[in-house]
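Records of this kind hold a single protein each, on a pair of labelled lines. Below, a sample record shows both lines together.
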Amino acid sequence: MKVLGLTGSIGMGKSTTAEMFEALGVPVHSADATVHRLYAGRAASLVEARFPGTVRDGVVDRAALGARVLGDAEALAALEAIVHPLVREEERAFLDAAHAAGAPLAVLDIPLLYETSGEGRVDAVLVVTAPPDIQRARVLARPGMTAERFEKILASQMPDTDKRRRADFVIDTGEGLEAARGAVRRIVEGFGALPKT
């Protein structure tokens, strides 16, 4: 089984691209979705112990936590030390299950793949990108997002140009859904992982 890492900066279209792989029968593990689950489960008490007041009714309040860690490298590192090992555990269980099911290809959707040296855990990397104006419009359309928060998030991520230079595959999601779907299909086909019709 081959493992493809899917990454890209905020607002570049990772989630939509991940859905395109799933539509072709490729199992996808989303690090973001896993963190959401963990924040409502076994990570909540650990986060509360390190960042008191960031958990409400047993669930991590992402806005409150973000306010505490964004722009604070030490706090962010402390949070990552709690969350990353739990995400890796779930990732390994996902890959074991995909392998046992005979999947020829599995996708790991990891937003900070390069920033966390995740390329060593995958066979190839796909970076999704989009022009800066499209990226900005997408992100600022999100509930509760501000221009200041967007800039802080961008500053914490590797520049898009660097990600694209290091990637094995690049999809520009700014070219529209059909173009992206076609690119995903070609990648899956290249791995010999298209479902038999």
